[in-house]
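re the bet — no i am not wrong, look at it urself. input seq straight from the record:
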Amino acid sequence: MSRFILLLLIFLPSVQLADDFRPLYVELSELEAQLYSVRIKRPPRIPVVNHPVIEFPDFCAKQPGTNNTYICEQDLSGSTLTIRYPNYGVPNSSVIKMTFTTGEKHTVTLSSGETTWRMPLREEVTTVAVQYTWLGMEHIWIGFDHLLFVLCLIWIAGTWSRILITITGFTIAHSITLALAALQVVVLPVAPIEAVIALSVLFLATEVTRGQRNNITWRYPVAVSGSFGLLHGLGFAAVLNEIGLPQMELVTGLVFFNVGVEIGQILFALVVVTLLKLVRPWSWFESYGQTTVGYFIGCVAACWFLERTSGFLL
């Protein structure tokens, strides 16, 4: 009996402590244009006298005759709201769930001590287009395996017209598999795909090292970029799934993510072609440049392949 009482005394404080730090829940719903309702669920350990309120921007006011409905003179999206405790602050975290009339739903978590947050912007076509164009550009610039693949394509294509055709073929191909994977039509494990992407870079690096040959890679680089582009699209989809697609403007997000990737590739191609024009007159580069670049990219791609393969085989 004494042991039971001892365990009870040890356990009870932990239950009370857990109860103390239960998060505050706030539900903010848009009822109609510029009309919002607020529902607050406070943890049991916050007394009624310290019940929090939500401070809206100055252009909002409480609807007469209600306690939890606010009328705003302008759209609330993008504005800053604050949780205010009337008597003293509490260490609890907060979970805010927001719903727009369009069906968009957003959740924000505030850690202990945080009391302000910014309302998300609405998913308008122009906003989503700009955001996902930049995300596409950013992804291609930090995706070194894709950049090395494009570098090899540029080297093999040679002239500007062939470069544009080759890169566009790559974009069209990866757009197809990106859309299919992002919409869950095609579902494949990410790790093997990343390993095979590294293998595709190794293949092109080998072609660059060998030099011009009368084969399909050198004669029709768009065929290679198109076929491997289907594979790289699955890699892009894995990244896009981590970022998340818009809730309401799904097609806009997909289209402009691809637009951003294409812009990023063209800008990268401009830099590569400019650098090649600067260094090709050097006698050393003319003799050893292509072999050096090919071996360097091949070694990096081989290391990626071994690393990524060991990640899911071991």
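see?? The chain has two domains: 22-118, 125-313. told u. also Residues 200 and 279 are 26 Å apart (CA to CA). so pay up
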